[in-house]
Known about the structure:
Blueprint: E1 15-19, H1 49-61, E2 66-70, H2 80-88, E3 95-100, H3 105-115, E4 119-123, H4 129-136, H5 141-153, E5 159-165, H6 174-181, E6 186-192, H7 202-206, H8 211-219, E7 223-224, E8 235-238, E9 245-249, E10 262-265, E11 270-272, E12 281-282, H9 293-304
Parallel strand pairs: 1-2, 1-10, 2-3, 3-4, 4-5, 5-6, 6-9
Antiparallel strand pairs: 7-8, 8-9, 10-11, 11-12
Bound molecules: S-adenosylmethionine and iron/sulfur cluster.
Amino acid sequence: MAQQFEDRFHRKFYYLRLSVTDVCNFKCTYCLPDGYKPSGQKSSSFLSLPEIKRVVRAFADCGTSKVRITGGEPTLRKDFNEIVHSVAATQGIEKVATTTNGYRMEKQVAGWKDAGLTHINVSVDSLDPRMFYQITGENKFTQVMAGIDRAFEVGYEQVKVNVVLMKDLNSHELPAFLNWIKDRPIQLRFIELMQTGEMDDLFQRHHVSGVAIRNQLIANGWLLKVRNKNDGPAQVFVHPDYQGEIGLIMPYEKDFCESCNRLRVSAKGKLHLCLFGEHGVELRDLLQQDEQESALIERIQQQLQTKSVSHFLHDGNSGMTPHLASIGG
Ligand code: SAM
Ligand code: SF4
């Protein structure tokens, strides 16, 4: 194995979030409120399967054991199953996850499982179909819920569900969500709304801290679980009376970045050291031949030494990221 990816602050990177497309068919108010708009370049400019294989190989050779395939909506890629299969076949990769809006899950999840997908995160911002429609711009609540049921039928033992927490829209739904996961092995993850470059006053209107939810959980007997090395940044709570779990992702909380263990590669092949970084570093010129792997690793290692200790969200600086669909959230 080449030298493990590690930065100046002794953070080790086990986890790659790989975006495979910027395209999305939903219009989430906090992400792509006007829907996906092509940036002028054709969708063929997204990473090809051979490029994906090379970047994953290099990361795996430097200690990465978990890859999340994200987007945009990753399942819009016609070769999604082949992408999953090739990531899963890479030596050293133990977990292959995806984050999806779930609209195709009911029909396709059996194929994802066969291809080697080990973990699924699906976004469900409300259990009220009308609110789901209002937040996502798509009337697909029933389809997404059927997709979750199907995922259990085909053998997934747990499904993670992402909920972007929004004041006045879904923040009052905690009791309904708790009821939903009582007898279901779902890890429900409340994500604090994050401010991005193209967001208007939505953040001011709807941002709410996860602290109130954490306090309610603790008061009701929920206990914080211990983190594993390649877990995400969620604080996960468990309760003896519930089959499901609750995760809280609170990027505005002090020390959030201390446990950072992930790097990102965008659908156009740029390395992002932070979700809220200033710019991406071009990797694509080194993804054209297998023989370029050592040069690719060297470039990533060098860039890692410039990774900041923390994001600057508290100063109102969300970096260059226009919306999370552009580098996969
Ligand atoms: N399309 C897929 C989906 O929505 O699950 C994957 C890509 S999406 C960018 C990844 C995650 O980022 C989703 O759970 C989404 O809800 C979340 N997200 C997007 N914009 C966000 C924002 N401004 N603040 C917090 N979470 C956001
Ligand atoms: Fe699409 Fe996901 Fe962004 Fe919603 S959050 S618009 S589903 S990329």
